[in-house]
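Reviewers of the previous submission asked for a worked example of the structure-prediction workflow described in the proposal, so we include one complete record here. The input consisted solely of the amino acid sequence. No template or homolog information was supplied to the procedure at any stage.
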Amino acid sequence: MNPYPWMTKRLKRFMPPTLFGRALLILVLPTILLQILAITVFFDHHWGSIQRHLSSSLAGEVSVVVERAIRTPLEQRDYALALYGKMMNMRIRLLPHPLNRERHDKQRYKIYAYELKQRLHLPFSIYALPTHEMIRTQVALPEQILQIDVGMKRLESSTTSIFVYWLVCSAGLLTLIAGLFLRGQIRPITQLADAAERFGMGQNVGDFRPSGALEVRTAGKAFVVMRARILRQISTRTAMLTGISHDLRTPLTRLKLQCAMMKETEDSRAMLLDIDEMDAMLTEYLEFARGNDESVPSEPIDIAPWLRGIVQSYISTGASVSCSLRHTATLWLRPLQMKRAVENIINNALKYGQRCHISIELSDHWLTILFHDAGDGIPEEAMEEMFRPFTRMEDSRNHSTGGVGLGLAISRDIVQAHGGKIMLRNQMTREGIVDGLIVSVTLPLSRL
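From that input alone, the workflow returned the following structure tokens.
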């Protein structure tokens, strides 16, 4: 049991959703923390030590120049300071008072200022000249302002930036190499997931070959074996029921011929009706048994024109079927199977609800086809039961009977084979009265 569930939930919000992102995070995060630790230790110890040595050295040189300037007479001071500047690689000038204290940068050069304060007992100011990459030190002498310009390298070591750049670039290069390696390792997993998703949606997986690490190959081989077993089971069931249907149709055909040769009576007509009903039942059994036949290839179907064609075929027979298809999308379907599912739903709507109206709703990843009828609806507790084979709930919708209770079962089998789902719900009026049943068929949008 997790003792900190709130922490786990909070961490999940910041975790990448993909396996590649999480694996890269596991690799990159410790690298970043290690780089931060290395830079922190470097700045606290190595860089701080270098700064103290450089500041102490420059402060000592400046104090020597100040001392020489004070001891040198005014008329000889310019010449003497020029010589000192050449010797110490400084640019030295004498300026009139006052001292420029406004530009004094205490925070940036606090170590250098501290070293100067220990050596000088005169007011001074320190600031940078970024355009010339110089550091300017001004010291207030009794008679004049002594201005000393030196290069920034005298206080700021170039090895600091080089060390930081090296750490960042090496970490970036390692991350890039690791990312390329991880992508190659994760590609077989994504291929396996894509194959499983396509198989679940009823699409042709093609020649899927397991690859990658041992564990991934094992999972891929298990998927291949499972897929073959499922297809073999479907094929065996279909072949068996096809054979049964053929064997049963032969004596039914003989009975139909015998009845046709008999004198037409009320009994012979009743026998013919029974034979026709048995033949229709065999047809429905066979359709249900066929289910999802993967040997039939999927095709890209523009759903709105396809549905309009089905509606038009019903309208031509005088059936009360209409549609308002404001949206459309291209789906990968097995047209004959999906047409059978749609026609089963429409036939149920016409049989129990007198009319059927079809509409489409579209979201980011799903397309929903809605079938509205004008019947009496179905009790909530009986809706799931309606999808079970050989289930008929005439009392819940209409007292006229028909079929063997396989229409919705076949439709759900086909829709699920396409990776979708089918649901029932009652349409309610504002007064809370049932105003028909809505059958919703939700299918995944195709990734062309």
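Confidence is low (pLDDT under 50) at residues 396-400. We consider this example representative of the routine output the project will generate in years two and three.
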